[in-house]
Here is the input.
Amino acid sequence: MQRIVCPERNDWQETARAQGFLFHTIDGERYLDERAYYAFTLDEIERQIEGPTAEIDAMCRELVARAIADDEILRLLKIPESFWPFIADSWKRGDKSLYGRIDLRFDGLGPAKLLEYNADTPTSLFEAAVFQWTWLEQAIERNIVPKRADQFNSIHEALIEAWRGIGAGRHLHLAGVLDNAEDAGTLSYLEDVARQAGLATTTIDIGEIGLLGDRYFVDVEGRAIDLAFKLYPWEWMMREDFGKQLATCPTRWIEPPWKAILSNKGILPLLWKMFPLHPNLLPSFFDGDPQAADLGTSYVRKPLYSREGANVALVSAGETIEEEDGPYGEEGFIRQMLMQLPDFSGQFPVVGSWIVAGEARGLSIREDETPITGNASRFIPHAIL
Here is the structure.
């Protein structure tokens, strides 16, 4: 794995706008940054990222199967008890998952390590699936990267095929916070690939979901919501006014309710307990667990529920060296062994390994000048050389 500085395309902003990528700059700062790219060998992709991604996903599914049969696990994850049967029924029915993103610490020098699993509402999807592929094609044409360059990226094609398997011939509602540019862009892209798969679609704001007689979820036009993609976390769904109807209404949700287990940072200590010393896992424990003392005075403290690095703290030799503010932490924290992100000339990357319909399909990379990846961390393309 290398970080290679390169010239950016002089028309990258125009290209982004033409593709509908309207959040390439956030609050006046670059979100998309192609002044460098990360280069991997094919062996690194196939053996050190793709293979471990599949293994981690399999371990996570084994954890879900165990969790729905063990109330103590669901209690540790602070999932409200009234939703336990709803989650268990979803798993037993075999409700299909569309996608997820496993975030890895990787430097090419040792095994990839699981940092967290964005199993419910992962973003950076359009830029991973489409925009970085456009960058590669044009970078080859303009001699920015070698002619032999390739990319680990079949996300777009896999999403189309996955939608066919999930909802062929059905009407799909896509719901999220539409006044958030990134969320709206992600929903627009997922609507596009669903249409390419042959689904009829309607996009609505999450606040527009209504109820018909406490029996059916409906949109603003009164159409019953049969199949719904939600870019809205399950823990928030459960707190909404309509939350108590989730279990009784027949709507099928993407991501499915069982993903509420995997989107929780509490899976990190649970996986470590189930698969101790696994080469792709870091020692992790619930805050307050006496075994957390095994980590000593250096660890990462993460809330059970958190997004974009909020409320994450890096503790080294008993001192907090980095910490992000945020609204999370009420449900509790976990501790994970401190293994600093690789430092590429002052840039700290996280490798996001995308899973579509249960298979590893591509990469996205976010980097920052700090070792906590947050909302403002930049998206950097990659290539296989």
Notes: The two ends are 10 Å apart (CA to CA). Residues 42-67 form the longest helix (26 residues). The CA atoms of residues 287 and 344 lie 31 Å apart.
